Amino acid sequence: MALRPARLRPSDLARLGGYGLRSRPLRAVLSALGIAIGIAAMTAVVGISASSRADLDHELAKLGTNLLTVSPGNTMFGTRATLPDDSVAMIKRIGPILSATATGVLNESHVYRTDRIPATQSGGLSVLAAKLDLLQTVGATLDHGAWLNAATDRYPTVVLGAAAAEQLGNVPAVYIGGRWWVVVGVLQKVPLAPELDSAVLMGWPAATTYLGFDGHPTTVYTRSVESQVEAVRAVLAPTANPEAPGDVQVSKPSDALAARRATNATFTALLLGLGAVALLVGGIGVANTMVISVLERRSEIGLRRSLGATKGQIRTQFVAESLLLSLIGGALGALLGYLATGTYATTQTWPTVMPLWVLAGGVGATVLIGAIAGLYPAIRAAHLAPTEALAAT
Amino acid sequence: MIPLETIVTAPDTVAGKPVIELAGVTKTYPGGVTALRSVDLVVDDGELLAIVGPSGSGKSTMLNLIGTLDRPSRGTVRIDGHDVASLSDRELSALRARRIGFVFQQFHLAPGRDALGNVADGLLYYGVPKKERERRAEAALVRVGLGNRLAHRPHQLSGGERQRVAIARAVAGDPALLLADEPTGNLDSASGAGVMELLRELNEAGTTILVITHDREIANGLPRQVPMRDGQVI
Ligand SMILES: Nc1ncnc2c1ncn2[C@@H]1O[C@H](COP(=O)(O)OP(=O)(O)OP(=O)(O)O)[C@@H](O)[C@H]1O
Ligand SMILES: [Mg+2]
C-alpha cells in the first residue's frame, strides 16, 4: 500500500506564492521596488543607447561611409604643403572613385556684414572656393536659395554654410576683399564635412578673378565604391601628389561618427554596470525579505506540515513567493525603463529602440535573482522540524 | 484528475481495529529530557479519549508522535496500520494529509483569509482542485455550525468560533484520526463545552478522536481517559 503526497497544481502554487506577499503588501512593494529600480536603470540605459545608435546608424547610412578627404599636410621642413592644381583630375582617374571635388581656402580673405566693421571683427568664418559638384559629393543639401552654377561661379556670389548664415544673420550680401558678394543660397548642416558649416563658399573662377586665389585645392572630397574604400585610401596620397606623397593627409570622416558610437558604447557599459549593482542590491533586499518572512511565519510552516505539506512543497512555496516578488519588480522595472527610453528618445527625435534581448534578459535576470534570493530561506523553511515550528507563536 | 483512491489507498478501518498502536515508546529530546518513558497505548477505530495529566507529563510529546510530526527515540508507533519508522518524510506527509487532522490550542488561522479560505486551504495538500476544496470547506463549516460565518475573517470571530473553524479545517478531509491539543485551553467554559459537544458529534459520525486536556471535568465526560505522569501512562 503506497502513501504518495498529492502534487501541488501550478495554479495553487501561484496562489501560495501570492499569499505571503498579500499578507504584507507594503513590505512586498518596497522589496520589489529595489529590483524594479535595477531593472529600470538597465533597460533604460540599454534602450537609450540603442536608440541613439539607431539614430547614428540611420545618419551614417544616409551619408555613406565611403567619403574620403585628401588635404595637404606639412612638408618635411615643417611648412604647410600644398596639393598640386591637377590633383583632383588625377584622383578622378582612380578606377573605384565615383566622384571627386575640392575646396580651396582663401586665408587672406575675411567676411564682413558691412563695409564699416573694423577688420578685427570678422569672427571665425572661412572663405572657400568650391567646385560646382561639391554638394553631391559631401552629401550637403540647401536650406534655401540656390547653389552656384556655371554662370554664377564667375561673379561675386556666395553660398553660406549653416553656421555662417546663423552668425551673419539674414543678409542679402556680404563684404569680402573690398567688394559686395550677393548671397544666393544657404546650406543645411553637413555632418560629414562640418568645416563647411562655418564657410562662405564662392565659385573657383570668381575667387581667382576677384580675390587672387592661387587655385590650390586644400581639401579634396572623394566618394568611392564602398567595397574598395580601403584600396582607394592606400593610393590617394601618391595619386594626389606623386612627388611627395608624405605631404598628403587622407582621412575618413565617417570614422568620427563611428567613434561617437564607440564612445556611447563604453558609456553604456559603465551605466550598465551601475544598473547591475542596483539589481544586486535589489536581490539582497528580496533575500532579506524572504529570510524575515520565514522567521515570522514559523507557525504557518508548522501548520502546513501538520496539514500534510512535504518539505519540498514548503520549499517550493517560498521559492515561488520569492520568484513572484522579483518578477513583479522586474516587470515594473522593464515598464519604467521602456517609458524612460521612449520619453528620452522622443525629446531627442530619435527612433525608440528597445532590443528584445534586453527585456528577455531583464526577465531572465529577475527570475535568476528571485530563485537565488529565495532558495536559502526556502531551504531553511523546509528543514524546520514541524514540532519546533508549531511551538513558535 | 487522479482519483484520490490511487493517491492513498486507505486500509479498511473496520470498527475495533487499532488506529493507534504505541509499543515501548520513549522520547528523549536533544539536551537529555526524557519526555516519554516506554509508553504502550492502543486506540481502536471510533474511540473518543482524553489524555490527562499535569503540565510537563508528556501529553503534547505523545500527541506529536501519534500525529507523526516527530519520531520516537525508541519503540514503535503504528498509525492507521503504518509503522512510522518505515515511512519517509514524504510518506508521513501524505499520511497526515489524508488520515490525520490536528486542532491546536492557538487555532493557527491565517489572519488575512476568511473562514471558508482557511478551511479550504487546509485541503491544499489533499490533492483536490480549488472548487472541490471550497465545496468541502463549506460543508465542514456547516457541520461545525458556522454556515453563516463563511466570509468572516478570524478577527471577526469569537474564540469559540475560531476553534470551530480550526476543527472544520481538521475534519474537512475526513481524517481517520483527529488529534486535539488543549482545544478548549483558550476558551471560556461555555464555548469550551460547545467545542466538546462538537467533538462528540464528530466521533458519533465515525472519527477517532484524541483530546489532550487539563480539565478533569471535560475528561470525565469522555468515554475513556488516559492519565499520564512523568512521561508514563498510569
Ligand atoms: N522540543 C523540546 N526540547 C526539549 N525538551 C522538550 C521539548 N518539548 C518538550 N520538552 C520537555 O518534555 C517534557 C514534556 O513536555 P510536553 O510538552 O510533552 O508536556 P505537556 O504534558 O504537553 O505539558 P503542558 O500540559 O504544559 O502542555 C517537558 O519537561 C518539556 O520541558
Ligand atoms: Mg502540551
Compact description:
The complex is a heterodimer of chains A (393) and B (234). Chain A is of the alpha+beta class and 393 residues long. Helices cover 54% and strands 15% of the residues of chain A.
Task: Give an overview in words.
Chain B: Keywords: ATP-binding, Nucleotide-binding, Transport. Chain B: This is Peptide ABC transporter ATP-binding protein. Chain B: Residues 20-234 form the ABC transporter domain. Chain B: GO terms for molecular function: ATP binding; ATP hydrolysis activity; transmembrane transporter activity. Chain A: Belongs to the ABC-4 integral membrane protein family. The complex is a heterodimer of chains A (393) and B (234). Chain A has 393 residues and is of the alpha+beta class. Chain A has 3 domains: 10-60 and 259-391, no CATH class; 66-102 and 220-251; 107-212, no CATH class. Chain A has helices at residues 10-23, 25-63, 87-92, 134-138, 162-168, 204-211, 229-240, 254-296, 298-306, 311-347, 356-383, 386-391, and strands spanning 67-72, 97-105, 111-112, 126-130, 142-145, 157-160, 173-176, 179-187, 199-203, 219-224, 248-251. In chain A, strand 7 (173-176) and strand 8 (179-187) form a beta hairpin. Chain A is elongated and about 105 Å long. The longest helix of chain B has 16 residues, at 189-204. Chain B has one domain: 3-Layer(aba) Sandwich (Rossmann fold), CATH 3.40.50.300. Chain B is globular, with a radius of gyration of 17 Å. Chain B has 8 helices and 10 strands. Chain B starts with a helix and ends with a strand. In chain B, the strands form 2 sheets. In chain B, strands 6-7-8-3-9-10 form a 6-stranded mixed sheet, sandwiched between helices. Chain B has a 4-stranded antiparallel sheet with strand order 2-1-4-5, covered by helices on one side. With 234 residues, chain B is of the alpha/beta class. The chains are: A alpha+beta (393), B alpha/beta (234). Chain A binds chain B through residues 1-9, 11-12, 16, 19, 22-23, 299-300, 302-313, 385-387, 390, 393, and chain B through 7-9, 11, 64, 67, 69-70, 81-82, 87, 89-98, 102, 104, 106, 108, 110-112, 122, 124-127, 129-130, 169. The complex binds adenosine-5'-triphosphate and magnesium ion. Adenosine-5'-triphosphate binds at residues 29, 31, 33, 35, 53, 55-61 of chain B. Residues 59-60, 181 of chain B line the site of magnesium ion.
